[in-house]
Amino acid sequence: MTTRVVVVGSANMDLVGLAERLPRPGETVLGDDFVMTAGGKGANQAIAACRAGGATTFLGAIGSDAFGVTLSARLTAAGVDTSHLRTAYGASGVAVIMVDRAGENSILVSPGANQTFLDLGEAERAAVAGADVLLCQQEIPLSTVAAALTAGRAAGTRTILNAAPARDLPAGLLDRVDLLVVNETEARAITGRAEPEVAALLELVPRVVLTLGGAGSRYADRDGRDVRVPAFAVEVADTTAAGDAFTGALAVAWGEGRDLVDAVRWANAAGAACVRRIGASNALPERAEIDALYQG
Ligand code: ADP
Predict the structure, then answer these.
(1) pLDDT 10s digit of each residue in the chain, 296 long?
(2) Is the CB of residue 125 less than 8 Å from the CB of residue 151?
(3) Which atom of ligand 1 is nearest to the CA of 239?
(4) Is the CB–ligand 1 distance for residue 241 below 6 Å?
(5) Considering the domain boundaries, does residue 258 fall inside one?
(6) For the domain that residue 245 is a member of, what is the CATH number?
(7) 236 Cβ inside 6 Å of ligand 1
(8) Nearest atom (ligand 1) to Cα of 212
(9) Is 148 part of a structural domain of the chain?
(10) For residue 270, how far is its CA from the centre of ligand 1 (angstroms)?
(11) 211: domain range?
(12) Based on the structure, what is the number of domains in the chain?
């Protein structure tokens, strides 16, 4: 069965300039190269879910500028359903990224149209209700995240929140989350504790996946399961978007009815496949590549 995934989140144009070194304040540096890719956690996870084999719809907002046209075209080309995509008058979300030859970066994110996505309309709620899995992140107004989780919960759609980037959450937001995906920094932000305590997270949500970078991940739930799932050993080229590859694949696998420990193992393969390549959305793996790594 093909999993129907709805992703509610951000879309940014990533403008990536590469240079020998990063400019200091007030300085101009001549760069080596420039690339422009679709980005934002929402768009990335929608593309990740699509490549992992999910029938994926993206709910989000682009601007009325040329970047909006490009973003929409790139999502469509990746196979994502953009029929509900909103166009807001003004600028699209943009991330201006500078990378030096040592891989150090400086990033300025201008949220643009993502800021205008303040609630869900009726057709958007219906799309969430018709999905097997809803996937949200925290790069858009949290009022919209809350509305999506509410619509998902009411319809029996499985709800996943990837609580990234870390933000203060309004009371009650996590009540509608079936599965929380966080890295250690985000876990600390939610629990307010120095150690990312899974037990504290399980007081808030029934199931938790903690991603641990090169150490893999950990799955825990209120039924008493607490399992470390090791990473796949690969040669690392660039860890950008590993979390997005992981989360998109996890949504698809869970929607297919796979046991969550197995789904997390498969998502680890997706994250590992992603870090083998340089880049963000362009580095997200196809299902066949995930399967090949997973099967060893
Ligand atoms: P985030 O970027 O959100 O902090 P992580 O860095 O934890 O996310 O990466 C997400 C997942 O990608 C990890 O749980 C792991 O499965 C995989 N991954 C990340 N880095 C590596 C690595 N160096 N080698 C193998 N797998 C990796």
Answers:
(1) 899 999 999 999 999 999 999 999 999 999 999 999 999 999 999 999 999 999 999 999 999 999 999 999 999 999 999 999 999 999 999 999 999 998 888 999 999 999 999 999 999 999 999 999 999 999 999 999 999 999 999 999 999 999 999 999 998 999 999 999 999 999 999 999 887 789 999 999 999 999 999 999 999 999 999 999 999 999 998 898 999 999 999 999 999 999 999 999 999 999 999 999 988 899 999 999 999 999 98
(2) yes
(3) 20
(4) no
(5) yes
(6) 3.40.1190.20
(7) yes
(8) 7
(9) yes
(10) 9
(11) 4-8+40-61+80-85+119-294
(12) 1
* 18 falls within a domain: no
Q: What is the pLDDT of residue 179?
A: 98
For the record, the structure tokens of 16 come out as 């990536």
Q: Is the CB of 246 under 6 A from ligand 1?
A: yes
Cβ 290 under 6 angstroms from ligand 1: no
Residue 86 burial (C-beta neighbours within 10 Å; 0-12, 13-18, 19+): middle
DSSP 2: P
How confident is the model at residue 156, as a pLDDT?
98
User: Locate tokens 């997706």: which residue?
Assistant: 270
pTM above threshold 0.70: yes
For ligand 1, the distance from its centroid to the CA atom of residue 164, given in whole angstroms, is 14
Q: Which residues, other chains included, contact 9 with Cβ-Cβ below 8 Å and sequence gap of 6+?
A: 40, 41, 42, 43, 45, 46, 58, 59, 60, 135, 136, 137, 139, 140
79 Cβ below 6 A of ligand 1: no
Residue nearest to atom 19 of ligand 1 (CA): 213
Candidate of 268, 276, 289 to mutate for ligand 1, largest count of ligand atoms within 8 Å of Cβ = 268
pLDDT value for 279? 85
Q: Does residue 127 contact residue 109 with C-beta atoms inside 8 Å?
A: no
Our answer on whether the CB atom of 239 is closer than 6 Å to any ligand 1 atom is yes
Shortest-distance Cα residue to atom 3 of ligand 1? 243
Hunting for tokens 């509410």 — which residue is that? 150
74 in any annotated domain = no
The catalytic residue positions are 244
How long, in residues, is the chain?
A: 296
